[in-house]
């Protein structure tokens, strides 16, 4: 019963006025990953994510829904949570049986991994959108059309088309998916109401600009400016480069790592700009984030002080060395004084 159990997924600088960066919608994703070792051995994992905050997980050995936030029980009554847990428990057997049937019909192919995603977006104007799809070994495989209640193959090969036919013959699967999609929207509304403090958490970004590996004198190669932004939450952020106060437009001079997660549940991003050596322009990195209260963070590149990571490390080591020498001298003098006995004079 494919996807029927998807319930369970700012430093320094000047501040300048700018429009706030806010999310256009709230998203609840119900993720499910299954590893099929063979026809009789399967490992399963499920989770629910509200935005990027994990709210629930699922113990697939007992089909128990675990509530990871104090408000995660809201939205449904205890009886409704129990009923949902039972539905998932029953769906596990049907899910595994259907996938194994499809796999064996096309010669096995074990081991393989399936990834399911059921997602709903609640927009600021009150409208919502719902999605449901599945992948095999990291590739798109099949999706569920919430409007028609039909499965649609995302690939044209025989395996995907066969899976489409098998799933569309199972009307109970479509009913369960439709139920989960409706429940998904209702849960978002409840979570937004009761988990407002967690959802509105704000962490200011920390940003620094440096030039990476300046070329030797006389080399015509461009200088690569790096703007490293980290420690911000929530995820939406906008980073731009300014040349002489004007924003640099898209093009080959710009590059970005994209937004990446940190271990402390914040985010980071690196943006680079290639500039011609000795061009005589001024450059700054501008960061816009909701935690800055409608302002932006401006970090200029100081060409007269090209502080790169290597220089920063060198200065740090120099400070540590001076401190170590001072400690040794202090301890030596203190020992000399302690060796002087009463009635004697120190040398």
Describe this structure in words.
With 347 residues, this protein is of the alpha+beta class. It folds into two domains: 14-199, Murine Class I Major Histocompatibility Complex, H2-DB, Chain A, domain 1 (2-Layer Sandwich), CATH 3.30.500.10; 206-300, Immunoglobulins (Immunoglobulin-like, Sandwich), CATH 2.60.40. It is 28% helix and 36% strand. It is built from five helices and 18 strands. It has helices at residues 78-105, 158-168, 171-194, 196-199, 309-339; strands at residues 14-17, 25-38, 41-50, 53-59, 64-67, 112-123, 128-136, 139-145, 150-153, 206-212, 223-232, 237-243, 246-247, 254-256, 260-261, 267-275, 283-289, 295-300. The strands form three sheets. Strands 5-4-3-2-6-7-8-9 form an eight-stranded antiparallel β-sheet. Strand 3 (41-50) and strand 4 (53-59) form a beta hairpin. Helix 1 crosses helix 2.
Write the layout of secondary structure elements.
Layout: E1 14-17, E2 25-38, E3 41-50, E4 53-59, E5 64-67, H1 78-105, E6 112-123, E7 128-136, E8 139-145, E9 150-153, H2 158-168, H3 171-194, H4 196-199, E10 206-212, E11 223-232, E12 237-243, E13 246-247, E14 254-256, E15 260-261, E16 267-275, E17 283-289, E18 295-300, H5 309-339
Antiparallel strand pairs: 1-18, 2-3, 2-6, 3-4, 4-5, 6-7, 7-8, 8-9, 10-11, 11-16, 12-13, 12-17, 14-16, 15-16, 17-18
């Amino acid at each position: 019963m494919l996807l029927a159990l998807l319930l369970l997924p700012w430093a320094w600088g000047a501040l300048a006025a700018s429009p706030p960066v806010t999310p256009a919608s709230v998203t609840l994703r119900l993720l499910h990953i299954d590893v099929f070792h063979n026809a009789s051995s399967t490992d399963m994992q499920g989770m629910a994510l509200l935005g990027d905050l994990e709210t629930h997980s699922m113990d697939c050995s007992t089909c128990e829904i675990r509530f990871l936030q104090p408000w995660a029980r809201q939205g449904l009554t205890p009886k409704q949570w129990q009923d949902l847990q039972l539905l998932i428990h029953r769906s596990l057997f049907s899910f595994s049986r259907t996938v194994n049937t499809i796999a064996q019909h096309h010669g096995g192919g074990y081991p393989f991994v399936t990834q399911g995603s059921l997602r709903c977006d609640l927009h600021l104007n009150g409208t919502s959108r719902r999605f449901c799809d599945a992948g095999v070994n990291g590739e798109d495989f099949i999706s569920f059309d919430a409007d028609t209640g039909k499965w649609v193959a995302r690939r044209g090969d025989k395996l995907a088309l066969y899976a489409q036919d098998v799933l569309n013959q199972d009307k109970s699967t479509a009913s369960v998916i439709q139920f989960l999609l409706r429940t998904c929207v209702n849960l978002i509304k409840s979570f937004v109401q009761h988990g407002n403090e967690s959802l509105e958490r704000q962490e200011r970004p920390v940003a620094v600009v440096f030039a990476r590996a300046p070329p030797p004198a006389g080399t015509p190669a461009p200088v690569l400016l790096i703007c490293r932004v980290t420690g911000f939450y929530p995820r939406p952020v906008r980073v731009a480069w300014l040349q002489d106060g004007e924003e640099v437009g898209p093009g080959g001079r710009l590059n970005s790592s994209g937004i990446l997660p940190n271990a402390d549940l914040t985010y980071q991003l690196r943006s680079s700009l290639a500039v011609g050596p000795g061009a005589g322009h001024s450059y700054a990195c501008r960061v816009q984030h909701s935690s800055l209260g409608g302002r932006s963070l401006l970090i200029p590149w100081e060409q007269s002080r090209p502080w790169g990571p290597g220089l920063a490390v060198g200065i740090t080591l120099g400070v540590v060395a001076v401190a170590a020498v001072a400690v040794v001298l202090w301890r030596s003098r203190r020992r000399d004084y302690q060796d002087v006995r009463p009635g004697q004079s120190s040398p």
